[in-house]
Write a structure and sequence with these properties.
α1 crosses α5, α6 packs across α7 and α6 packs across α8. The protein has a five-stranded parallel sheet with strand order 2-1-3-4-5, with helices on both faces. The protein is α/β, with parallel strands linked by helices. A hairpin with a 2-residue loop joins β8 and β9. It has eight helices and twelve strands. The chain folds into two domains: about 120 residues, Response regulator (Rossmann fold), CATH 3.40.50.2300; about 100 residues, Winged helix-like DNA-binding domain superfamily/Winged helix DNA-binding domain (Arc Repressor Mutant, subunit A). The mean pLDDT is about 85. The radius of gyration is 18 Å and the shape is globular.
């Protein structure tokens, strides 16, 4: 079973989260601050991190930043009392995968943990299946119902990234960094243009997914029925 690290300076919150995760069979590690969490991540097998923003020593923002410097794929779930949109944007920009505001429903938290772990398995795969659409990372081929769909390399990379983590919001800055690279000098309009082209190619009735605009945040891919 997966090991989840709970990083929160509130012992009662850690106890509550641990209670529900243990019922689902998860193994657990706990940290009362960001620095303790980093040590555990460096020395233990951690499959997902639940982190609070307001922690002593090293807060959740810095912890998120430090984790992403060494691991781009470790699932991160922020659980915080800060519900403002600006804080959510900052969290996504730093690399969190999901965001839950206190007070929260522990059952919902468990469902989000399971969803993030499922996504992380897809991320490490070389192919993604979305209904009748298949993306092959090894060959950069896209097929729809067995028929080839021609995509330029950047459109493929962008679609594969979104499809690897369905439902996750990516900011334009994150998409620029992961698809075009840190040294790219363009702006977010490049992302918008490529998203529009993908929508033109995969926007028909009955399509197995669509790319949704998360207003004020970025984009996410939503699988079809």
């Amino acid at each position: 079973m997966a090991t989840v690290l709970i990083a929160d300076d509130d012992a009662n919150i850690r106890k509550l989260i641990a209670l529900y995760l243990r019922k689902e069979g998860f193994d657990l590690e706990q940290a009362g601050d960001g620095r303790e969490a980093l040590v555990l991540i460096e020395n233990s097998r951690i499959d997902l991190v639940i982190l609070d923003i307001m922690m002593p020593g090293l807060d959740g923002w810095e912890l998120c930043r430090e984790i992403r410097r060494s691991d781009a794929n470790l699932p991160l779930l922020m659980v915080t009392a800060k519900a403002e949109s600006a804080h959510k944007v900052k969290g996504f920009e730093l690399g969190t995968d999901d965001y839950l505001t206190k007070p929260f429903d522990p059952v919902e938290l468990v469902m989000r943990v399971k969803a993030l772990l499922k996504r992380s398995l897809v991320v490490t795969s070389q192919s993604v299946q979305l209904g009748n659409v298949t993306l092959n990372r090894r060959t950069f081929e896209v097929t729809r119902s067995g028929a080839s769909v021609a995509l330029p390399l950047k459109e493929f990379d962008l679609l594969f990234l979104l499809a690897s983590r369905p439902g996750q919001i990516f900011t334009r800055e994150q998409l620029i960094q992961q698809v075009w690279g840190l040294n790219y000098e363009g702006d977010g309009r490049t992302v918008d243009v490529h998203i529009r082209r993908l929508r033109e190619k995969f926007g028909g009735h009955g399509e197995s997914f669509h790319i949704e605009t998360a207003r004020g945040l970025g984009y996410r891919l939503i699988p079809g029925p």
